[in-house]
Amino acid sequence: MADSFLLSETLAGRSALVISVAALGVACVTDLRARRIPNQLNGTLALGLLALHVHGAGLTGLLDALIALVICFGVGLVMYLLGALGAGDVKLMAALSLALDGTSALNFLARIALAGGLLGVTRLIADGNLRNALFGLLSSARRAEAERSSVPYAIAIAAGWLWWVAAGMNWTT
Question: Which of 1, 32, 122, 132 gets the most CB atoms within 10 Å of its CB?
Answer without folding.
Answer: 132
